[in-house]
Design a protein that fits this description.
Layout lengths: L7 H10 L5 H21 L3 H17 L6 H8 L2 H9 L37 E9 L10 E6 L20 E5 L5 E7 L4 E2 L5 H8 L5 E2 L2 E7 L6 E7 L18 E2 L2 E3 L2 E2 L5 E2 L3 E9 L5 H6 L1
Parallel strand pairs: 1-13, 8-9
Antiparallel strand pairs: 1-4, 2-3, 2-7, 5-6, 7-8, 10-13, 11-12
Helix pairs in contact: 1-2
Length: 295
């Protein structure tokens, strides 16, 4: 086959990829070709625009490092990450809703006993965070793994710091007690812009968008026999709740970080200044029988 025009080339490429022996690869490849070719026919890029697109993807790859994933940022800001999440976690409100992982998770965070202050030397308003991990019917899940991480009061994550400020802080791994409870101390996080000094930032500017995310605390929770939960808890009243750059906000994940004056906190700690409290009860979704056997 040869002499393809702007319409016949699509069928030719689809015929080639139909030879894939893996049916899932064949399905994905065929859909990719169909939709990509339709996109190109719709926008009709000039040769220069096509080259700009290639340069954009190349620059996105060059921006990736051990502490930054520009392609995740691209997926997040185009709503693809949340679309994939919605397809895979459509639980109709029966369990805690999920949201995007984000680019700042660190594998194997330091484990700490409940009650630990994970803020290190960070300045900011003290935050007492607590919660429970249960089944959908409220049965406590003991020894569940609870990974947490969040920004500092200036909106930066630990992995974004260099020099004397470097080190893992405002991040840790806890385990729930026999009643499914956990708690820790840190500082209240702040709203922050996603990294926008690279190609994704230029894309947002060209689209007339801001790069800001509302303040939140990340949670990743695991327990045997249940789906891993990746979610945030957002600070109520944040000005960016309705314009999150990565489309991650859900009403069920918003909480007031209630402020208290100097005094004694729930765990007995005495504070001489204002502090805030976050409490959230998480319900995990049971794995299907098939998924449980595969896990």
């Amino acid at each position: 086959m040869r002499n393809f025009d702007q319409f016949s080339i699509t069928d030719a490429v689809r015929e080639r990829v139909a030879g894939a022996t893996d049916p899932r690869i064949r399905q994905i490849s065929d859909a990719l070709v169909r939709h990509l070719h339709d996109f190109i026919r719709e926008v009709r890029p000039t040769q220069a625009e096509w080259e700009q697109g290639i340069a954009f993807l190349t620059a996105t790859g060059h921006m990736c490092s051990g502490t930054r994933q520009e392609f995740i940022l691209l997926s997040d800001t185009l709503g693809v990450s949340m679309l994939v999440d919605a397809i895979n976690h459509d639980h109709q409100g029966k369990v805690t809703e999920s949201t995007v992982l984000g680019p700042f998770y660190v594998e194997g965070p330091p484990e700490a006993p409940c009650g630990t202050d994970i803020s290190g030397d960070l300045a900011g308003q003290p935050m007492f965070a607590s919660g429970t991990v249960t089944t959908p019917d409220g049965t406590p899940l003991a020894n569940a793994i609870v990974d947490v991480w969040h920004s500092d009061e200036d909106g930066y994550y630990d992995v974004q710091h260099t020099g004397e400020e470097a080190g893992l802080v405002a991040r840790a791994r806890f385990r729930t007690d026999a009643q499914g409870r956990f708690h820790f101390w840190s500082i209240k996080p702040a709203a922050y812009p996603i990294p926008h000094d690279g190609p994704v930032g230029k894309m947002l500017e060209a689209q007339g968008r801001h790069p800001w995310r509302p303040a939140h605390v990340h949670f990743m929770i695991e327990a045997p026999g249940f789906e891993k939960l990746v979610t945030h808890v957002f600070v109520g009243g944040d000005p960016y709740l309705d314009s999150d750059a990565v489309f991650g906000v859900k009403d069920s994940l918003i909480r007031e970080f209630e402020v208290s004056g100097p005094g004694t906190a729930p765990d007995g700690r005495v504070l001489d200044r204002d502090w805030c409290a976050l409490h959230y009860d998480f319900q995990l979704n049971p794995l299907s029988e098939a998924a449980s056997k595969a896990a």
